[in-house]
Automatic annotation (TrEMBL):
InterPro entries: RNaseH_sf (IPR036397). PANTHER family: HTH PSQ-TYPE DOMAIN-CONTAINING PROTEIN, TRANSPOSABLE ELEMENT TC3 TRANSPOSASE-LIKE PROTEIN. It comes from the Eukaryota. GO terms for molecular function: nucleic acid binding. It comes from Sipha flava (yellow sugarcane aphid). This is Uncharacterized protein LOC112685867. The gene is LOC112685867. Gene3D superfamilies: Ribonuclease H-like superfamily/Ribonuclease H.
């Protein structure tokens, strides 16, 4: 038998409400413009460390009975890097690497100094109608960030 770990993302009770709200909004947008998905900049960030990420596809142990198997991940010295990427109309924006924990000031600096260069390769039509998607990370909701996004991406 092959045994492996199941890795899942924790969902909060409030997540269902936000997902339903988003689907209702998207349905309305698609009725108004069937190409609206081409204008959404889907974004995400991730952290990579020397502790690694357990890939259940690559860590299997074959035996007739369930093993008492451990997988050592913690090192005495931990280092890592963070990466931001975006996807719009089939085009990858980034990756953008940063070392420190993302906070409102650092994210605002990224929006002001890095993102505009990434958007330069997009058509004027996409840039003019771009809808900026983000998750609920605290850095994304800092006042300085919200003020910038509301000014440069109004109602989007």
């Amino acid at each position: 038998h092959a045994y492996h770990a199941d890795l899942i993302q924790h969902l909060r009770e409030s997540d269902a409400k936000y997902r339903i709200t988003f689907i209702a909004w998207l349905k309305t947008q698609l009725n108004e413009n069937p190409y609206v998905l081409n204008y959404i900049l889907w974004t995400d960030k991730s952290k990579f460390t020397n502790n690694g990420v357990l890939s259940k596809q690559n860590h299997r142990y074959w035996n007739d009975k369930k093993p008492q198997w451990t997988f050592e991940t913690n090192n005495q010295t931990v280092w890592g890097t963070n990466v931001w990427c975006g996807l719009i109309n089939g085009k990858l924006l980034g990756p953008y690497f940063y070392d420190s924990t993302l906070n409102g000031r650092r994210y605002n600096d990224f929006l002001l100094n890095e993102l505009p260069n990434m958007l330069d390769d997009l058509s004027l039509d996409i840039r003019a109608n771009l809808i900026f998607q983000q998750d609920g990370a605290p850095a994304y909701n800092a006042n300085i960030v919200r003020n910038y996004l509301n000014e440069y991406f109004p109602n989007r």
